């Protein structure tokens, strides 16, 4: 039964005092001393309970009931003996023994707001909790925390005025409560995280690490959990003796220099980095190391995520390097250059993914002379502005160079025999160092979609292929099956000349064919190209007039391939559309032509 009178609501033995008669914020309460259950009013009447500083206590209340989406701000002493929280389906709190507010879609944070005043020996269950805010344990006399493996953040004031807050670490040791590093002995320079079965998931905010030189951790998962809380100038000593899988290494993104215990049968540390026990494989490089680094001689492979999150600027590989696994250089924000050294011959592996991902400053690639193959997708995530390929390179597989080079030009070495699809899209010029055309070139640099709405691609719908003795003009837009057939045709040296002169005809649309043919004719003045352009000139001229593109029309007329009839018809159309520049040029050309004929008759 509800009774509303101004800014007072009375319901089921509880009086709620509102901030105002129109407000949905409760700022005070009174409770019948016979009640053991406190039920919060639904959100249609009260949305928020601001009772944090209320100097009252209701010790008889054992249970809280929350049936709708509301926000509760209370101290532990308001209901010191609550041991049960019952929540409805639409509530933003979780049922249990403590008050836990569930995170929304955006924050994802699940916060334990109140542990009430648990007594010594009682367990505080933090199942599902990932954050402990200030004051959550205030007045709590329990030092036993269970199910805290989800806790990632703990406020500096989380345990103020509580039994845990009064605890002090033993000499030379760290104080761990549940899964949280609460404190440590300040007289030592090496913090030792105990070798417990439960991993440590969080460090209490605000701990002073001044004077600490090393942190010894027995479990790799504890180290990963704490990596963003450990100061960068502290060395980590890892006493993990088990095999560490690649998924775990992929989470290792913010760890300073590390020293691995010699008892580990699988790995060893050299200069703060982790290698396989034999020293042949680089497993993990210190994420916070920066500047220019050199991988030592003898190392022959780098695994996935080895440099994940690393801050280095340049990496020089040794002459012994043979293999780089996909994702080896992932999320390196400062990486500008990799010197691949004199040993590695194959970049990437088979159909594997990118070896370089999310490295925004890596803009120029230069390969050493011994590299022979580049595996599929090896650099497909790189936004290169310039690529310098080496003589000796034999094969480039699919999707290696998918970024659009800034200069829109690339030079392919004479040694290159094969190039896969989807490479160097958007280039305007491809320079070949020999008369040999790598197999797959047409499929590699063309696409089967014509970007009609992009002015750049409309005005540059062809690719200039520069060879030592001639220049070819290839449409950028070709149906993929047609591109495959063109690659097959160009692979036959005896008949290649026949197909080279007709590359324009492979274009995806008439406009692409015409503009490619114009570029080719301007370069070679081939009679077959002239015949094609004359045959299609009327449709091309009509299109340019419709687009009011006087500049392109004048350039087309300048080719000198149009018949007198076509010139007359074009002049008529130009007059109708008031294209004065075109009119002036045609009249001048006709005048020059008549004068030329008169001179000839004389």
Structural overview:
This protein is an alpha/beta fold. The chain is 20% helix and 25% strand. A 6-stranded mixed beta sheet has the order 1-2-3-4-6-8, with no helix packed on it. Strands 24-25-26-28-30 form a 5-stranded mixed beta sheet, with no helix packed on it. The radius of gyration is 37 Å and the shape is elongated.
Note the topology.
Elements: E1 2-5, E2 8-11, E3 14-18, E4 25-31, E5 37-39, E6 48-51, E7 63-66, E8 71-74, E9 84-87, E10 93-94, E11 99-101, E12 111-114, E13 123-125, E14 131-132, E15 144-146, E16 153-154, H1 163-166, E17 174-177, E18 180-184, E19 190-192, E20 202-203, E21 214-217, H2 220-226, E22 235-238, H3 246-250, E23 258-260, E24 267-270, E25 273-276, E26 281-284, E27 290-294, E28 301-302, E29 311-316, E30 323-324, E31 329-330, E32 337-339, E33 346-347, E34 356-357, E35 364-366, E36 373-374, E37 386-388, E38 395-396, E39 409-412, E40 418-419, E41 429-432, H4 441-445, H5 455-459, E42 462-466, E43 471-475, H6 480-490, H7 496-500, H8 510-524, H9 527-535, H10 537-546, H11 550-558, H12 564-576, H13 580-601
Parallel strand pairs: 4-6, 5-7, 6-8, 7-9, 13-15, 14-16, 18-20, 19-21, 21-22, 22-23, 26-28, 27-29, 28-30, 29-32, 31-34, 33-36, 35-37, 36-38, 38-40, 39-41, 41-42
Antiparallel strand pairs: 1-2, 2-3, 3-4, 10-11, 11-12, 17-18, 24-25, 25-26, 42-43
Helix pairs in contact: 8-9, 10-12, 11-13, 12-13
């Amino acid at each position: 039964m509800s009774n509303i009178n101004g800014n007072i609501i009375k319901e089921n033995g509880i009086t709620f005092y509102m901030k105002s008669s129109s407000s949905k914020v409760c700022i005070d309460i009174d409770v019948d001393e016979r009640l053991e259950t406190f039920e919060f009013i639904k959100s249609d009447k009260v949305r928020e309970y601001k009772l944090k500083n209320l100097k009252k206590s209701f010790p008889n209340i054992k249970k809280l009931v929350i049936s709708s989406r509301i926000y509760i701000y209370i101290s532990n002493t308001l209901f010191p003996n609550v041991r049960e929280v019952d929540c409805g389906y639409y509530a933003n709190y979780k049922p249990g023994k403590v008050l836990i507010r569930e995170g929304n879609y955006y924050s994802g944070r699940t916060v334990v707001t109140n542990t009430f005043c648990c007594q010594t020996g009682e367990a505080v269950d933090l199942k599902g909790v990932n954050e402990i805010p200030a004051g959550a344990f205030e007045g709590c006399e329990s030092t036993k925390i269970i199910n805290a493996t989800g806790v990632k953040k703990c406020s500096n004031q989380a345990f103020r005025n509580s039994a845990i807050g009064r605890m002090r670490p033993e000499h030379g040791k760290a104080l761990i409560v549940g899964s949280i590093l609460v404190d440590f002995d300040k007289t030592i320079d090496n913090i030792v995280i105990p070798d417990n079965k439960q991993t440590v998931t969080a460090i209490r905010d605000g701990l002073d690490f001044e004077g600490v030189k090393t942190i010894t951790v027995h479990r790799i998962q504890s180290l990963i959990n704490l990596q963003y809380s450990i100061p960068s100038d502290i060395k980590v000593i890892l006493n993990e003796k088990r095999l560490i899988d690649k998924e775990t290494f992929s989470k290792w993104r913010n760890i300073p220099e590390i020293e691995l215990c010699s008892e580990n049968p699988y790995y060893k540390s050299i200069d703060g980095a982790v290698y396989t026990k034999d020293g042949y494989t680089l497993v993990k490089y210190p994420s916070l190391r920066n500047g220019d680094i050199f991988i030592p001689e003898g190392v022959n492979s780098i695994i996935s995520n080895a440099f994940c999150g690393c801050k280095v600027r340049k990496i020089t590989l040794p002459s012994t390097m043979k293999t780089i696994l996909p994702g080896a250089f992932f999320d390196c924000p400062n990486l500008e250059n990799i010197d691949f050294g004199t040993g590695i011959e194959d970049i990437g592996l088979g159909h594997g993914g990118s070896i370089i991902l999310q490295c925004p400053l890596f803009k120029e690639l230069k390969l050493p002379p011994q590299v022979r193959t580049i595996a599929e997708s090896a650099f497909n995530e790189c936004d290169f502005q310039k690529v310098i390929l080496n003589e000796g390179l034999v094969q480039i597989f699919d999707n290696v160079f998918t970024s659009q080079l800034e200069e829109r030009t690339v030079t392919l070495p004479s040694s290159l025999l094969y190039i896969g699809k989807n490479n160097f899209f958007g280039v305007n010029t491809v320079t070949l160092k020999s008369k040999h055309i790598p197999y797959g070139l047409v499929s590699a640099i063309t696409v089967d979609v014509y970007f009609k709405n992009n002015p750049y691609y409309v005005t540059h719908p062809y690719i200039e292929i520069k060879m030592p003795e001639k220049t070819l003009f290839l449409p950028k837009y070709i149906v993929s099956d047609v591109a495959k057939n063109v690659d097959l045709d160009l692979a036959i040296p005896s008949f290649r000349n026949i197909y080279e002169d007709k590359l324009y005809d492979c274009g995806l649309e008439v406009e692409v064919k015409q503009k490619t043919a114009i570029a080719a004719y301007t370069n070679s003045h081939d009679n077959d190209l002239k015949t094609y352009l004359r045959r299609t000139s009327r449709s091309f001229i009509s299109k340019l007039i419709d687009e009011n593109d006087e500049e392109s029309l004048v350039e087309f007329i300048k080719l000198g391939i149009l018949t007198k009839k076509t010139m007359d018809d074009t002049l008529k159309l130009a007059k109708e559309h008031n294209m004065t520049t075109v009119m002036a040029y045609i009249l001048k050309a006709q005048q020059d032509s008549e004068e030329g004929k008169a001179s000839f008759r004389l």
